[in-house]
Each structure stands twice: as C-alpha cells, then as structure tokens.
Amino acid sequence: MRSEPSFPHNAWQRRLCRRHSLDYTQLLGVAFMLPPAICSVSWLLHGPLWLTLVMGVLWGTSLLVITASMTLAFVVTGKVRPQALPLSTRLNLLGMIVFQVATLLALLTGHIDWAFYLMFGLLNLTGLLRGQTLSFEAARNIVFGAALCLAFAHHVAWLILPLVFLQYLQSWIIKPRLRERIKGLPTRVEYLERSREACGSGGG
Amino acid sequence: MSQTAALWKAKIYLGMERYQEVLDLEEEARRENLAIEPLLAIAHARLGHWARALSIAEEALQAKQSGAEMAMGHVYFEDKEYELALQWYEAAAKHRTQRAVALRAAGKTLVCLGDYPEARAAYVSAIRLTPFVRPDDLLQLAKCLRHLQQERAAIEMEILAHAKE
User: Fold this and answer.
1) Residue A77 sits in which domain range?
2) What is the nearest CA distance from A43 to chain B, expressed in angstroms?
3) pTM here?
4) What is the ipTM of this complex?
5) pLDDT category, A204, cuts 50, 70, 90?
C-alpha cells in the first residue's frame, strides 16, 4: 500500500471508521434477539400464524442450544476444573440456566407474553443483583427492559423492534461521559493486581 | 526456554526501546519458527533501517502475521509518511484485539498531521477501549484539547492523569 490513500484522512468515511467499530458479537446478539422479537410482535398483532410459528421455533431452538451449552459448561467445568468456577460464577450460571429453562417452558406452553417478559424484562433486571453499585451499563439495560415491557403490555407493537435493535446496539450509540469512564477505570497497577488474583483463583 | 519466550522477550525489548536486542533475537526466533517479523520491522524502522523494515513488514503482511498492519504503520510513521501510516493504523484498528493500540498510534499520527479534532477522537476511543488508565493517553488528549482551545477540559484531563498515576 505504497500509493496514496484514496480518501484524505479527514474524509467522512475514514472518520466514521476511526470513531466507530461495530463489534461482531453485538451483531450476533441482534441476530439472536430478532426471532423472539418478531415472534412476540406477530403474536401481539395476531399476525400470520406461520410467521409466529417459524420465529417461535427459531427462538425455542436458540434457547435450547444456549441452555444445553450452559449446562454442559457448568457440569464439565465443575468436574474437570472446579477452581475455575468460583461460587459467584456458579450461582450466576445456574441462575441463567433456570432463567432459560423458564423461558423455554413458557414458550412451549404457548405463553408468548410470559416468555417475552422473562427474556426482555426480568433478564435485564438481573443487573440490579450484580455488585454493590449500579453500573452505567446495568442502568441502561434496566431502562431498555422496562421500556420493552411497557411497550408490550400497552400493545405498542411498532416500538418493540426498534427498541430491541437499540438495546443491542446501545453501547455503540450511548456512551458514558469520558470523565466518568476514566474515574471508574483502575490504574495499571490495580488492573495487574486484579488480573493476577483472577489467575490465582483459576479464573484468569 | 519455552517456545514463546523469544516472542515475549522481543515485545519487552521493543517496549523498553532496546531495538538492537530485538534484532538479536531474529536467529533464535527463526530456529524456533516464531513469527516475530512485525516486531523486527518496527525495531529496524526505529533504528532508521527504513528499507529493511519495509521489506520485513511487507513479508509479514503477505504471511498474514498478527500485527503486520501495525508494523506497516510504524514503518511509515518512522519515515514521516503520516498519511500512509494512518491508513495502516486504520487497517489494524479493524482487528478487535489491536483496536486500542492502533487508535492510540492513529492519534499520534493525526497530531503529526495537525488534525487535532480527529486526534482527540482517536485518543478518546483508545481510552474508552483500554481496560485501565494510561496517564500518557490522558496527557496526549490534554494536548489535543489545548490545541482546540479547550483549556478547562485539558486541565481536567491532566488532573485525572496525575491522580491515576
């Protein structure tokens, strides 16, 4: 690449690429969330049965795969390398498995509304249980979760899909103020110490 | 010595600006089949062996070695070809694991190009992506802010940099 760049360094395309990078895991998150959202909206609006069914099957399949993977990780890691799973991680994982199973049961019994509230509402509320203080990300998730549940409860179907997109792309759009972010970050020494501790307890 | 020890040694020497010692590891790395070409290219570039640095970096790029784009960026940066360097740093920033480092280097390059608003944006992104505070990043950001007549924000960054040392 010896030739001069096709766009100058301050061209809007290059500025956009430098400032924003869409993480593929976020896109994957959106892909996983679309079938539940479409299934719920279709059910809410009494839309075509085939659409509700196809999206419901996709939703159920992804739940089944996630639950099976989590259970496998829980059982295998617990047996092979128990020190890698501290009690808090074990409880979190167990809670997530119970949560996924409950959503799957709601879906299988045809209670799409329960499944929706579990997946988009209660799952976001778990942020309240983590840690002593409410992080910016957890607060953001709770607001989105509440908005989604309210939209569903009041049959504001047109708002659900945009909210789901926003929820999963929010970290790309809504960022905490830089000063707050810096204040919340550890120093290099603190970070190294924490990493060493994590390695020492087998979780690193 | 484990297989990757030479690689880590090269990284550490590079960080300590002991470039000749990085080059001394070339033979050892070749024997152990380790890909340290990007680090060698950077060391050559910093020692002023520009042509050698470029050929090694291009080889690393062809072999799709990790860090090859960063090495190309550093090689062009040392040759004061800032537009080209920036282009390679942007390419490196597409890799998730290198994004913070690449944006930091892009910020430095944009300062050399005199584009302070963009340099500020690059440093802000690098700070947000790094899991701990690097006081030097905050000081560099403060410099950009000062150039943009944002004296108060610059002072604030300097205070934070000293508090987080």
Assistant:
1) 23-173+185-200
2) 38
3) 0.68
4) 0.75
5) very low
